Amino acid sequence: MPIAGVNSTGYSAHDKNLMEEQIHDARVNGSDFVLVYFHYGNEYKTSLNANQKEFSHAAIDAGADAVVGSHPHVPQGIEVYKGKTIFYSLGDTVFDLERPGTLTTYFVVFNLTGGQCVATIYPIKLSGYLPYFMNAASGKSLFSSLSPSCDEIVINDKGIGLLSLS
After folding, report:
1. Inter-axis angle of helices 16-28 and 50-61, to 10 degrees?
2. pLDDT tens column, 100-129
3. For the chain, where are the E strands, in sequence order?
4. 38, 55 Cβ separation under 8 angstroms
5. How far apart are CA 43 and CA 40, in angstroms?
6. Phi-psi category of 65—alpha, beta or left, where left has phi over 0 and alpha has psi -120 to 50?
7. What is the per-residue pLDDT for 11?
8. How far is CA 31 from CA 40, 83, 164, in A?
9. Which of 11, 23, 81, 165 is most exposed, with the fewest beta carbons within 10 Å of its own?
10. Who contacts 91 (Cβ-Cβ below 8 Å, separation ≥6)?
11. How high is the pLDDT of residue 55?
12. 3-state class (DSSP) for residue 57
């Protein structure tokens, strides 16, 4: 598919300069927390590609506090880069696919208090196209299967991940 133009259809190409400008504008306009959301990655691949890593690191380098990605339909890993968090692919929370790997996912909630951020990561299993919280063992298993893995995540007794950042 070609890149979209003024008078033609296509996809929205990543523009590093525009991204940096938008992150800068968000900071200048007084945002306490800048989250960049990317729709990127290869469908059904549990490993990230080089562009995902490059774009995510560039967003953090430009001043973003966190990056969240989607598109592969399967969960991908979590990385802490320069003290900021990248969630490469959350997977699907509600979707009508029944392909291997698409029925497990996670979602993240950012709790901001003062200068601290706690990201709570909930492992999810889809059943009948509806999301349900995983039990503790399944949640721990999901976290251990993610690539890249994130050593900074603390997994509680319920199998929920907690990531504290400043």
Report:
1. 30
2. 788 999 999 999 998 899 999 999 999 888
3. 35-39, 66-70, 78-81, 84-87, 104-113, 116-127, 130-133, 154-155, 161-165
4. yes
5. 9
6. alpha
7. 66
8. 25, 18, 19
9. 11
10. 70, 72, 73, 74, 75, 76, 102, 104, 105, 106, 124
11. 95
12. helix
- At residue 13, the pLDDT reads 72
Nearest to 135 by CA among 119, 144, 124, 147: 124
Given a cut of 90, is residue 163 above it in pLDDT?
yes
Return the structure tokens found at 35: 């989250």
**Per-residue tokens: 56:** 């995510």
Q: What tokens appear for 145 in the block?
A: 């299967």
Q: How many CB atoms lie within 10 A of CB 89?
A: 28
Kindly indicate the confidence band of residue 1, based on its pLDDT and cuts at 50, 70 and 90: low
